[in-house]
């Protein structure tokens, strides 16, 4: 089939590449001229495991092409995916300017039947709005379908190729049939294509993300309570998670959820509720708790240094909002850095993939190091913000030699309490006993 994808970010590029991998002819469109030029030269613009192999293979097979021309994209595709940003607006709602802006151009440019697919995360009623905007100018027939994306960064290729489900919101048989044909290769394992109306599909996405954010937040509250009563959240987590009604996943406490989606999507659903005079009380609590949780290590740091961190140097492991990505949007590490700097401390950081992005955002406010050990030299303490695998089994002797004090503040509970005690560290984590 002939497919066009508008917007080549984490979702658009993975969608385009994976659809090319199943034999479709794909054109990806972006307004970022540099990005398109680089992709034409074979440069993958983001760090996403396994994407490079598929990217190269499909470019070589001439199934994956890139352009800055929306007209070229629209002329090519029978199905047009919109994978455009829907960032947080000032009032917390999803900013639809990119989606509706492109919809407006689509209305002016299409010359034959197209299925326009909302892959971006968009509030209930957006498919209807997109339809209205395109209708203003379109002289040909078209359908708008909602097809929310559930991939996770770091596992995006795997999630896209082997989805647990595909949700299609459509009220057109013609469009539904085309979408079914496109996705057939991805559901051979028996996972379903779930067809529903557009509004329900749009809400499914927000409800799923908000539920997961609430699940993490609930565990963060349990962790905070564990600290008060002397329980161990790791044991509680395992005890709870073995109940299949609860499940083992997304129960890991830490310094809050971040990323390009949970924070903005929870806010957007909360705001959509308000607009309909519905008070989403759970979401309000999730937002409040997560904001505070991002700084959960700070009281521990202050207590260790007797509220005097001015002039101290903190070595940070992990900047990305989670491992296996270079994405730093709403990363808890950034909140931690800002707070440490505001209190007069210095920060040196190491991350396997995200340092360039942080350098672009923070300039020379912090220092960067070339390795997880270089960053420790002369620092007063180690603070762990992201659970990259390489941080899980470090050489504790080297850490002890390089740090001024043998102290670790761990926002991701990487180490076993007995092991770290034997290694002779003071160790502060989330929802577990402090090792002093
Ligand atoms: N990042 C993720 O893991 C997931 C994101 N989503 C949703 O997918 C949507 C896209 O997210 P990301 O891929 O993360 O965004 P992104 O910010 O990584 O990429 C968006 C791309 O769109 C391009 N763009 C902006 N305006 C354009 C225009 N007028 N024409 C063509 N290209 C244009 C930008 O240059 C950029 O390359 C959002 O609604 C997000 O909530 C959904 C599931 C997962
Ligand atoms: O809409 C989206 O963009 C995507 O948002 C999330 O994916 P992603 O943000 O890539 O990452 P997650 O693995 O879900 O992690 C999100 C945040 O929650 C935190 N988290 C996750 C799991 C956990 O147990 N504890 C926890 O604190 C992570 O550290 C991270 O900061 C969802 O998992 C995807 O299904 C969805 O498509």
TrEMBL record:
Residues 315-417 form the UDP-glucose/GDP-mannose dehydrogenase C-terminal domain. Substrate binds at residues 150-153, 205, 250-254, 258, 322. The lineage of its organism: Bacteria, Pseudomonadati, Bacteroidota, Flavobacteriia, Flavobacteriales. NAD(+) binds at residues 30, 35, 86, 121, 153, 264, 329. Pathway: Nucleotide-sugar biosynthesis; UDP-alpha-D-glucuronate biosynthesis; UDP-alpha-D-glucuronate from UDP-alpha-D-glucose: step 1/1. The keyword Ion transport does not apply. This is UDP-glucose 6-dehydrogenase. Keywords: NAD, Oxidoreductase. Belongs to the UDP-glucose/GDP-mannose dehydrogenase family.
């Amino acid at each position: 089939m002939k497919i066009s994808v508008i917007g080549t970010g984490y979702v658009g590029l993975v969608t385009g590449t994976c659809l090319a991998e199943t034999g479709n002819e794909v054109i990806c469109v972006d307004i970022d001229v540099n990005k398109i030029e680089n992709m034409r030269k074979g440069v993958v613009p983001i760090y996403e495991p396994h994407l490079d192999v598929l990217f190269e293979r499909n470019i070589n097979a001439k199934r994956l092409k890139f352009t800055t021309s929306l007209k070229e994209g629209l002329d090519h595709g029978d199905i047009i995916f919109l994978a455009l940003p829907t960032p947080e607006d000032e009032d917390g709602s999803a900013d639809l300017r990119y989606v509706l802006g492109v919809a407006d151009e689509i209305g002016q440019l299409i010359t034959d039947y197209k299925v326009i697919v909302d892959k971006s995360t968009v509030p209930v009623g957006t498919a209807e709005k997109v339809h209205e905007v395109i209708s203003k100018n379109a002289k040909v027939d078209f359908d708008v379908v909602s097809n929310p994306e559930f991939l996770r960064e770091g596992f995006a290729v795997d999630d896209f190729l082997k989805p647990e489900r595909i949700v299609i919101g459509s009220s057109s048989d013609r469009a539904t049939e085309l979408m079914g044909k496109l996705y057939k290769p991805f559901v051979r394992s028996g996972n379903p294509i779930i067809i529903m109306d557009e509004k329900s599909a749009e809400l499914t996405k927000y409800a799923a993300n908000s539920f997961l954010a609430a699940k993490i937040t609930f565990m963060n509250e349990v962790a905070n309570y564990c600290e008060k009563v002397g329980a161990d959240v790791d044991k509680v987590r395992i005890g709870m998670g073995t109940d299949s009604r609860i499940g083992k996943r997304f129960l890991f406490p830490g310094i809050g959820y971040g990323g390009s989606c949970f924070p903005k999507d929870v806010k957007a659903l909360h705001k959509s509720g308000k607009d309909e005079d519905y008070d989403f009380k759970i979401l309000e609590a999730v937002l409040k708790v997560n904001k505070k949780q991002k700084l959960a290590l700070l009281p521990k740091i202050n207590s260790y240094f007797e509220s005097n961190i001015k002039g101290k140097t903190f070595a940070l492991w992990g900047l990305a909002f989670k491992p296996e990505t270079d994405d730093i949007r709403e990363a808890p590490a950034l909140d931690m850095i800002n707070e440490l700097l505001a209190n007069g401390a210095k920060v040196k950081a190491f991350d396997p993939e995200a340092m360039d992005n942080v350098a672009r955002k923070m300039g020379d406010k912090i220092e960067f190091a070339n390795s997880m050990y270089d960053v420790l030299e002369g620092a007063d303490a180690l603070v762990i913000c992201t659970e990259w695998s390489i941080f899980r089994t470090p050489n504790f002797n080297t850490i002890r030699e390089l740090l001024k004090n043998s102290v670790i503040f761990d926002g991701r509970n990487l180490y076993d309490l007995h092991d770290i005690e034997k290694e002779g560290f003071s160790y502060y984590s989330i929802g577990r006993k402090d090792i002093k």
